[in-house]
Amino acid sequence: MTAFPLDRRTLLVGATAATGGLILPAQAKGLEPTPTMRGGSNNYRPGAPIVQRIGGGGFWMTGTVRRAGDGAALAGQRIQIWAHTTEGHERDPHSHGATLTDENGNFRLEMPQIVPAFGQPHAHLAYDSGNFETVFLRPIMDSASDKTLNVDFVLVPV
User: Fold this and answer.
1) Whole-number Å distance between alpha carbons of 58 and 48
2) Residue 98 CB coordination number (10 Å)
3) Cα separation of 140 and 37, whole Å?
4) How would residue 130 be classed by pLDDT, with cut points 50, 70 and 90?
5) Which residues lie below 8 Å from residue 65, measured CB to CB, with a gap of 6+?
6) Per-residue model confidence as pLDDT tens digits over 25-70
7) Fewest beta carbons within 10 Å, which of 72, 77, 133, 152?
8) Under a CB-based contact definition with an 8 Å cutoff, are residues 155 and 64 in contact?
């Protein structure tokens, strides 16, 4: 068996031969889309109104909405939010509301304090506006005493 020195030149020559003479630069995959979460669509109400605040407030739901691949911020996207709170159950119409993303793809909506349902303090969020694939999320809070929850969406065009 003939031994070849394992140096940079040998590796480049071998790689060039193996690819038929093509050497391609490394490429980033881009930003992966957010998958829908199991249970995210529970008690969903299509067309919940855009509101300034849900109920009396005291808890902030925040996040960003970006396009899969290039990560571009998506302005004017409708995000629906609902949860079991100190003022109502997640199935109650007054516990649902929607907001729009700003020019930087950020959203922010004040709502009553989220309380545990089925033993877990969690929220429900949906992107359902039609320009991108629908995504339902059900993030669980670290603690029932948290006053904010940040949730990011990465969407795929339809």
Assistant:
1) 20
2) 22
3) 11
4) confident
5) 73, 74, 77, 79, 101, 105, 107, 127, 152, 153, 155
6) 444 469 999 999 999 999 999 999 999 999 999 999 999 999 999 9
7) 72
8) no
Q: What is the DSSP letter of 37?
A: P
> In the beta sheet, which residues pair with residue 111?
59
User: Pairing mode, if any, of strands 123-127 and 78-83?
Assistant: antiparallel
Structure tokens at 144: 């029932």
Residue with tokens 């993303």: 101
Give the Cα separation of 96 and 53 in Å (integer): 10
Torsion angle of the four alpha carbons 107, 108, 109, 112, in this order, in degrees rounded to the nearest 10: 140
Q: How far apart are CA 3 and CA 24, in angstroms?
A: 28
More confident residue, 18 or 98: 98
Burial 102-123 (b: 16+ CB within 10 A, else e): eeebebebbbbbbeebeeebbb
Q: What is the pTM of this model?
A: 0.80
129's enclosing H/E stretch is none
